[in-house]
Amino acid sequence: MSENEKENKNFIWNIIDEDNQSGVYGGKVITRFPPEPNGYLHIGHAKSICLNFGTAEKYGGGCNLRFDDTNPAKENAEYVRAIEEDVKWLGFSWKSLCWASDYFDTMYEAAQELIRKGLAYVDDQSADEIRSGRGTLTKPGTESPFRGRSVEENLRLFEEMKDGKYEDGSKVLRAKIDMASPNINMRDPVLYRISHQTHHNTGDKWCIYPMYDLAHPIEDAIEGVTHSLCTLEFEDHRPLYNWVLENVGFWPNPPKQIEFARLELANTITSKRKLKKLVDDGLVDGWDDPRMPTIAGIRRRGFTPAAIRNFCEMIGVAKANSTVDPGMLEHCVREDLQDHVESRNVVENPVKVIITNYPEDQTELLELENNRNHPEMGTRKVSFSRELYIDGADFMEVPVKKYFRLFPGNEVRLKGAYFITCNEVMHNEDGSVKELLCTYDPATKSGGPEPNRKVKGTIHFVDAKTAVKIPIRNFENLMTADENGEMVFNPDSLQETFGYAEPSVLSAEAGDRFQFFRHGYYMADSKLSKPGAPVFNRIVGLKSSWKPPKK
């Protein structure tokens, strides 16, 4: 094992190594990623995807993509397609594409087996009665009055449930375990419920559906999963997972459930219910809105698969939940983009500059590097003439202390061009800045002899003759805390503006990324961009308060 592998080793891999040494699964490693198709996947799911698929790859095994479609009331084909696309986008391929609904016959047989063994019964209590009878952490539960039904009666009632004789909520099948168990999940949990819903896969064949605690272990066992990797909220369910497999008894070498800490980002809502409400209320442009924490959303915003995988590797695999600074994710995105995208000059809140001593009919083509960190990415031609636009943030009529950009009487360098000095500010009737009258020093051209003086500020520009106007969408946090500390929708999370850019950006296709010099990284939006008319989303800014720990 290399030193790098040792550093990246996690407790799950330690368990798998021990199982491989003992030969419990014959050296096989089969995992699964089992989303319920009731919404789009979010950034928290990315960690589970990377862990499950990455672990299978590491050990030369396979990972199944399994749709846990046991609740037809909330599932549809749109979510299925989105989940498949997310997994592929992150760079993974599944061993098998599976559906929980394909196993409904086996699950029904397993439930009958538990009834025959006296380990399950049909309960006529309502959901509220079952809930109140379950007890508390300090008080044992109360046995159902229907717990003593005979095996024969339970088999008959369960079959009648399957045949559609009873209404939704009138009966359930419960495991018969221990109503005094310190683990509330073991207090006769519900295994099957009645739901007269048409299923997207099985149609109207079934009107009873298994609960997750029954379906999950059986699905794993049928597929030959060796290590079932779950987030920590399922740790208290592990005894029930093992109980089902042991007492059904169909599988002599059952899978092993291992729990890990889920990914939580600070100030980020990942609840599917809350995200769906944002979509349904029209507060966002669908599940793939670039402000959304869904994988589809961050993909449309411009995050890269490599950055997401690196982020998941950096946060590691732990047994204790923690909250991660979103700046860490942005750092990973920035680290990836800085080596792969070209730079372009774009100015926002443009201020016009007229170089009064530059010939009116002259235009120069300057050579600018595409990526200053990677000379192999080449250069591009940028035009320069008498009238330019500079960024609004690069001029102050009354400068603050330590402001080194352009202001009256100050000299700065235009990147890749010349030194200019602001001599006069022209105003509109309302007092706003109309244009700046400047002069340039022809002896200070970039690439020529070193000037005999220094300037502290370097700013960028676009040529007013060739500049093109482009829509720009900048983003803030989708959610913000209200006066009570509750997370609510941030109405200022989308800021639509425009910029003047080098004309080459008009050829950008949807998905093309650039660094807008001194502004950040941007991508042409996949839904709003048209040929010759891209709309740019800000992916991340150039700087962040988050810093990686020192090694």
Characterize the structure shown.
By secondary structure, the chain is α/β, with parallel strands linked by helices. The protein is built from 13 helices and 29 strands. A 7-stranded mixed sheet has the order 12-27-28-29-23-26-13. A 7-stranded mixed sheet has the order 21-18-19-20-14-17-22, with no helix packed on it. It is elongated. The two termini are 21 Å apart.
In what order do the strands lie side by side in the largest sheet? 12-27-28-29-23-26-13
Strand tally is: 29
Radius of gyration, CA atoms, in whole angstroms: 31 Å
Main structural class: alpha/beta
Measured distance between first and last alpha carbons: 21 Å
Number of helices: 13
General shape: elongated
Provide a short characterization of the protein structure.
With 551 residues, this protein is α/β, with parallel strands linked by helices. It contains 13 helices and 29 strands.
Strand-helix topology:
Layout: H1 3-8, H2 11-22, E1 30-33, H3 43-58, E2 62-67, H4 77-89, E3 97-99, H5 104-116, E4 120-123, H6 127-133, H7 151-162, E5 172-175, E6 190-194, E7 208-210, H8 212-222, E8 227-231, H9 238-248, E9 256-260, E10 263-265, H10 272-280, H11 295-301, H12 305-315, E11 322-324, H13 326-337, E12 342-344, E13 346-348, E14 351-355, E15 363-369, E16 379-385, E17 387-390, E18 411-414, E19 419-427, E20 433-441, E21 458-459, E22 461-463, E23 468-475, E24 479-481, E25 487-489, E26 494-501, E27 513-516, E28 520-524, E29 536-541
Parallel strand pairs: 1-2, 2-3, 8-9, 10-11, 12-27, 14-20, 18-21, 23-29
Antiparallel strand pairs: 4-5, 5-6, 6-7, 13-26, 14-17, 15-16, 17-22, 18-19, 19-20, 23-26, 24-25, 27-28, 28-29
Helix pairs in contact: 3-12, 8-9, 12-13
